[in-house]
Amino acid sequence: MASPTEFYEAVVIGGGPAGITVVGNLLEQKVEPILWVDNAFDGGRINRCYREVPSNTKVALFIEYATAVAPFRKIVSNTPSRSRWEEPSESDGVAVSGKPDKLQALRSLDPVKGCQLSHAADMLLMLTEGLSKTAGVFARKVRVTEATLDESAQKWTVNLANTANSSASTTPVVTNRLIMCTGSSPNNSPLPVEIPSLHNLDLDCALSPTLLSTTLSPLGPTSIAVVGASHSAILVLMNLYKLASTSKPDLRITWLTRHKLRYAEQRDGWILRDNTGLKGEAAEWARDNLEPDTMPNSDVSKYIAKVAYEAGAEKETYEQHLQEMDFYVQAIGYSRDPIPTLKTSEGREIEPVFDHDNGHFEYAGNGEGKLQKLPGLFGAGIAWPARVVDPEGNVEYAVGFFKFMKHIKKVVGTWI
Ligand SMILES: Cc1cc2nc3c(=O)[nH]c(=O)nc-3n(C[C@H](O)[C@H](O)[C@H](O)COP(=O)(O)OP(=O)(O)OC[C@H]3O[C@@H](n4cnc5c(N)ncnc54)[C@H](O)[C@@H]3O)c2cc1C
Ligand SMILES: NC(=O)c1ccc[n+]([C@@H]2O[C@H](COP(=O)([O-])OP(=O)(O)OC[C@H]3O[C@@H](n4cnc5c(N)ncnc54)[C@H](OP(=O)(O)O)[C@@H]3O)[C@@H](O)[C@H]2O)c1
C-alpha cells in the first residue's frame, strides 16, 4: 500500500498493544493519514513471546479493549457495535448484520477469569489486520531509525530502514506527530559475579513451557537459579516446577528473592498494587506453594529451595549460591528497547524526557539546558506508561492493554 503523499498527520512506531491502541484512537479523532510502522506486525511481544503465559487480567477486559473505540468496533463486527460506555443490549456480541462478531473465541471464555495470552494475541492480530486495511492507515513493515525535528516548522522527518523480509519503500517521510510505542524487553544486565560455568537462560525462554522443556529436557541432572519475586519470577518457578514434577525429576531450582511476595488486593472500588502485585493463576499458585506457611508442606519444596536476601547483598548471595549452578534466569523487570536517534535539523542530539501524565516529552531545547516541550513527540505502552497514584498515595506505572486504552483515550486530545 503506498501513500499518495510523503506527508502524514502521524507516524506511529510499534505494532504491539500500545501501537494498536494509538492507531485506533487517532482514527477515532479523525487524525489521518497515519503511517504505521513495525518490524513484523505480529502483535508485539505478547504474540511473539508470551502466547503460553496465563494473563493477569480478566477476559472481560480484553473484550472491552477490543470494543473501546469505533474503528476497533468496525473491525470486530464490520459495523459499529456498542462500547462499554453504552447500555448493554441483548445483541451484545452479535453484529448488526446478524453474524457473530470476531470476538467469539474470547466471548466463549469465562469473562471474570484470566486466559492464556494466545487468546489476547489472536485478538491483537485480528485488529492489526483490520487497522492495516482501514482507510487512512498505511502500514509498512520497516524500522524507524532516525527522526529529525524542524524546530521552526514543528515537523519531524522520519528515516525508515528495510527489515530483512520487507521490500517496502524507505524514502523519509514528514509528519506532524511521531508516536513511540516501542516496547520493552527483560532486564538481563550482567551479574555482579563471574562464574564461568554458569549459563544465562533468557526470561522469554523460561516463560514458555515449550521452549523451557526443549532447552532443559535433553540435559542430564540440571540446576537452575531464578532471581526475582514478581509476576515473571513466579511464572518461571511454576514452569520449572511443572517440568521437574513431570518429565524432568533431576531438575533442581534455587529461588533467590530479595522481598516478600506482594499481591494485588481488592479495596473498596480500587486495587492495591494493581500494577505490581501478583494476580490470577500466579498469585494463587504462589499463595499455595511459596509462602513460609505453605512451602514446607508443598510438593514444590522437593524441587525448589528458597534463598531470601536483602537488597544490596546480591554479590555475596550470588557468590555463595550460584557457584554450582548450571543456569540462572533473571526475572527482575523490563527496560525500554532502544529508540530511534532523535536530533534537530541543526544536528543537535535530542534526549527526550518523558512526561508520564500526558504522554508528551520535553527536551533541552536550544541547548540552554532548561527543559521545554518537545513538539510532536509522544509515547505510549510498556516503555512509556502513565503514572498512577492510588488513594493511599502509592505510585505505580499503568501497564496493560486496557490501561493503555484508558490513558490514551484521556490524553489523545492533547496530542492533536
Ligand atoms: C510476560 C508479560 C505478560 C503480560 N501479560 C499481560 C496481561 O495478561 N494483560 C495485559 O493487559 N498486559 C499484560 N502485559 C503487559 C503489556 O500488555 C505487554 O507488555 C505489551 O507487550 C506491551 O505492549 P507495547 O505495545 O507497549 O510493547 P511491545 O509489545 O513490546 O511492542 C512494541 C513493538 O514495537 C516495535 N518496534 C520497536 N522499535 C521499533 C522501531 N524503531 N521501528 C519499528 N518497530 C519498532 C517492536 O518490534 C514491537 O513489535 C504483560 C507483559 C509481560 C512482559
Ligand atoms: N500475564 C502475566 O501473568 C504477567 C507475567 C509477567 C509479567 N507481566 C507484566 O509484565 C510487567 C513486568 O513484570 P515483571 O514481573 O517482569 O517485573 P516487575 O513487576 O517490573 O518487577 C520487577 C521485580 O524484580 C525485582 N528486582 C529488580 N532488580 C532486581 C535485582 N537486581 N535482584 C533481584 N530482584 C530484582 C524487583 O524487586 P524490588 O522491588 O526489590 O526492586 C521486582 O520485584 C508487569 O506489567 C506485569 O504485570 C504479566
Please state the CA-atom Rg, rounded to the nearest Å: 23 Å
- The DSSP helix count reads 12
State the share of residues found in helices, binned by percent.
25-40%
How would you describe the shape? globular
Terminal-residue CA separation: 25 Å
The fraction of residues in strands falls at 15-25%
Largest sheet: 10 strands, mixed
| Class of secondary structure makeup | alpha/beta
Average pLDDT figure: 93
- Count the beta strands: 21
Ligand species: flavin-adenine dinucleotide, NADP nicotinamide-adenine-dinucleotide phosphate
Contiguous runs where pLDDT drops below 50 for at least 5 residues: 1-5, 80-88
Summarize this entry quickly.
With 416 residues, this protein is of the alpha/beta class. The chain is 26% helix and 24% strand.
Model description:
With 416 residues, the chain is α/β, with parallel strands linked by helices. Helix content is 26%, strand content 24%. The protein is built from twelve helices and 21 strands. The protein has helices spanning 17-28, 44-49, 59-66, 70-77, 104-107, 117-132, 203-206, 209-216, 231-244, 280-289, 314-321, 401-411, and strands at residues 7-13, 34-37, 137-140, 142-150, 155-162, 173-180, 184-186, 199-200, 222-227, 251-257, 265-266, 271-272, 304-308, 327-330, 334-336, 341-344, 353-354, 360-363, 372-379, 386-389, 395-398. The strands form five sheets. Strands 1, 2, 3, 4, 5, 6, 16, 17, 18 and 19 form a ten-stranded mixed β-sheet that branches. A five-stranded parallel β-sheet has the order 8-14-9-10-13, covered by helices on one side. Strand 1, helix 1 and strand 2 form a beta-alpha-beta unit. Helix 1 runs parallel beside helix 12. The radius of gyration is 23 Å and the shape is globular. It binds flavin-adenine dinucleotide and NADP nicotinamide-adenine-dinucleotide phosphate (NAP). Flavin-adenine dinucleotide is lined by residues 13-19, 37-39, 44-46, 50, 53, 55-57, 117, 143-144, 181-183, 207, 232, 334, 337, 340, 381-383, 399-401. Flavin-adenine dinucleotide binds at residues 13-19, 37-39, 44-46, 50, 53, 55-57, 117, 143-144, 181-183, 207, 232, 334, 337, 340, 381-383, 399-401.
